[in-house]
């Protein structure tokens, strides 16, 4: 069911500073910042040859990233995103096996313009999992 790792997401308290660290200190290629109001975040992607790193900053007080940063003020790994060929088939298979899909269970459009779902971290070894249809 799982394809390749699409990205690893890191929550950061200061997106501009984190972007500068990856771009200027590590020499990485980074995208422009993109606001995603539906998800409550602003993101920047660090482009690597084999995957991406997504830097997440809260967008608004109700952002789930704001709550994460309250517990982890310096930031840290937030989730890992895996690619799937058919997100509805993956969701149905996971729910049938007892996995919990967060939200209403319907895919939302993610930062790449593709359908995404999030899976409860308690069902996946303490890690928040995002699935993205490719």
From TrEMBL:
Enzyme class: isomerase
VOC domain sequence ranges: 4-134
Catalytic activity: (R)-methylmalonyl-CoA = (S)-methylmalonyl-CoA
GO MF annotations in UniProt: metal ion binding; methylmalonyl-CoA epimerase activity
Pfam families in alphabetical order: Glyoxalase_4 (PF13669)
Coiled coil feature spans: none
InterPro entries for this protein: Glyas_Bleomycin-R_OHBP_Dase, MeMalonyl-CoA_epimerase, MMCE/EMCE_epimerase, VOC_core
Domain of life: Bacteria
Gene Ontology biological process terms, A to Z: L-methylmalonyl-CoA metabolic process
Family according to the record: Belongs to the methylmalonyl-CoA epimerase family.
Protein name per UniProt: methylmalonyl-CoA epimerase
Originating organism: Xaviernesmea oryzae
């Amino acid at each position: 069911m799982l394809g390749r790792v699409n990205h690893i997401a890191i929550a950061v308290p200061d997106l501009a500073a984190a972007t500068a660290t990856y771009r200027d200190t590590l020499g990485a290629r980074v995208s422009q910042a993109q606001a995603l109001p539906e998800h409550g975040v602003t993101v920047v992607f660090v482009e690597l040859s084999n995957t991406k790193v997504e830097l997440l900053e809260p967008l608004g007080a109700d952002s789930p990233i704001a709550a994460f940063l309250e517990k982890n003020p310096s930031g840290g790994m937030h989730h890992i995103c895996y690619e799937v060929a058919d997100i509805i088939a993956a969701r149905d298979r996971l729910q049938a096996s007892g996995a919990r899909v967060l939200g209403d269970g319907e895919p939302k459009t993610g930062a790449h313009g593709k359908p995404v779902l999030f899976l409860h971290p308690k069902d996946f070894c303490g890690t928040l999992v995002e699935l993205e249809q490719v």
